[in-house]
Amino acid sequence: MKRILFGALMLLLFAMQNTCRGQSLDEGIKLLKNHSYEKAEVALKKINSEGKSPVAAYYLGNLELERDNDAGAKEYFLSVIQLDKDNPLGYVGLGKYFIDFSKSDSADFYFDKAIKISKNKNSEVLCDIAEYCIAAKVKSANAKIYVEQAIKLQPNNARGYLLNGDWYLQFNNDGSKAIQQYEIAVEKEPKSPDAYNRIGYIYRGVQNLEASREYYKKAILADSLFAPSYRNMADLLYNFGKYKEAKLFYDKYLNLSEATPITIMKYAFTLFSSKDYADALEALNNIEQPDTGNLQYLRLSGYIYFETADYDSSVKTLRKLIKNSPALKVRSSDYEYLGKSLQKLDEDSLALKNFNKALLVDPQKIYLHKSIGDIYYQKKDYPEAIEEYKKLVDSVEKKSAADIYLLGKAYYYNKELNVADSIFTLVSNLSPSYAFVYMYRARCNNENADSNHVNAKAFYEKFISLLDTSDENMHAYYKEACFNLAYYAVLEGDDETARQYYNNVLALEPGNANAKKYLRELKKEFSKN
Length: 529
Prior knowledge:
Elements: H1 2-33, H2 37-51, H3 54-66, H4 70-83, H5 88-100, H6 104-117, H7 123-136, H8 140-153, H9 158-172, H10 175-188, H11 194-205, H12 209-222, H13 227-239, H14 243-256, H15 261-273, H16 277-285, H17 295-307, H18 311-324, H19 332-344, H20 348-361, H21 368-378, H22 382-394, H23 401-413, H24 417-430, H25 435-447, H26 453-466, H27 475-491, H28 495-508, H29 513-528
């Protein structure tokens, strides 16, 4: 009898321990979702050390992914498999790890293994895989299948509908269908802030301040202790220039989560995105004992240093970032910012090298052809400038007059006058009130042996009619036009008009020696006659 009672007591204690552990695990996951990263880490590590929990280890791995610590994440995911090879979460984690390195085949292997182990009947496994694929914008078809299967398994679980909405937004850019799915999620779980935050984000994207604010308010009402809702509201208000109000919400966010390097970096990123670079730098400087090897910290610091004109620090920081990053994790923008900083330091050759690397990583950054072309143009390497500007112009369906103008100038200085004039004609058709296109058309016709001065004259006259002579920076161009028009007038025997143009020059610059000289010559000719 005593043995039975002892056995029953041990079973009860074991059950109580498991319940407490389950509650602690839920609390750790909740802290993680609430951006309370250090508290979450403490809670999850405690559970993992006490009972070697595969689930706790999995979420610790997720935390390391959030910190951009891939090696640490992989170690935790492997430990899940070591603790329980039949737990699918370890394989889900390794799939995420390989997604981060753009190793699609390896990611597929581990995701498929996780689904096979769970017999395609674990909605949380399917949702975790889909969520990471959607966030990384990879494996669109697979992600959709996983989400639909998760909804089928648990039709009353809001998470499936949230991810379905995310899928429509990320892969189809379809905000309407996304909102439909988020509204279903609200019906399934009215007290969750998640769907409201997502709808608020959509309205923010279309610059609808009031609608976005309303949904973020609903998110806060649904769960007033959920920190990310306050950050979303702060981001919105920063974007619309409501800085004082935004700061109040960010303070609330930091109070509810915790002022850790990750959350402060999120705050700094908001400031950076709002072009508030000085405050962004101050926020980063407020991080106590920053991990100067953290890739996110290096990246944001390097970008902010550029925007605050500290180009030496930007170069130093971004070089460290690129050196410390696995090759597949270096972003196009890392090379781009390094190139821009080097260009500011007159290191044009190194700037070119980095701009080209940025294009290799992301060929869609068409505007970088302008940055490359500008460097060649400044170096007077006009053939190379032409090639880059042609790529800039040819890569877009809707042509920009400003981009075509750059191409025309490169052809002009490369002495291809007929081609340049044809291109400037296109510019004048697209932007007929742009004065300088007529200046260059005049120059092309003035210098072209196959043309005559009549064409050049008409374009100089058009240029003068559009020029703002109150701007001192325009005076040199105005004088060029006047001298040429005076010359054409002399050729046509119209000395009075020539005299008028020389006097126009003197009105701007009373001491202009050439204008005085030509007026004297005209006077002599008049005296002879």
